[in-house]
Amino acid sequence: MDGATHEPLLKISVSFRNPENMRQGGSVMWAPGEPHELMIPSSTSVNIQVRAEGYRPSEQIGVGPLSPGETQDMTVSLQRQANPSPVGEQVQ
Questions:
Q1: Is 82 in contact with 91 (CB distance < 8 Å)?
Q2: Residues 74 and 61 sit within 8 Å (Cβ to Cβ)
């Protein structure tokens, strides 16, 4: 969600990695109207990072091992990126 307006973001990317085996992981992209569920193997820890165009990426969020069938709801607030200064313009 947008950290200032609390509105849902239209398109997000979620990256996930097993902190104990960095070769286990991947990323998914969600468009508006799609369910936002990320299924991971039970008894596995993951680090999650959320991104959206025009926003700073979230910090990595650690999710501990879940039992089979257990779910965890999560809302991630992203902050807009500051607009870069045009080339040649001095920032004071």
A1: no
A2: yes
> Is 7 a member of any domain?
no
Burial class (CB in 10 A: 0-12, 13-18, 19+), 12: buried
Domain membership flag for residue 43? yes
Has residue 87 been placed in a domain? Answer: no
- pTM summary value: 0.76
Q: Which residues of 19-52 are buried (b: 16+ CB within 10 A; e: fewer)?
A: eeeeeeeeeeebeeeeeeeeebeeebebbbbbbb
Which of 8, 63, 64, 47 is closest to 31 using CA atoms?
A: 8
Q: pLDDT tens, 13-59?
A: 999 898 888 788 888 887 766 667 777 878 888 999 999 999 999 99
The tokens of 39 are what?
């299924």
Q: Structurally, how many domains does the chain consist of?
A: 1
**What's the domain range around 58?**
12-63
Give the C-alpha separation, 90 to 41, whole Å.
Answer: 50
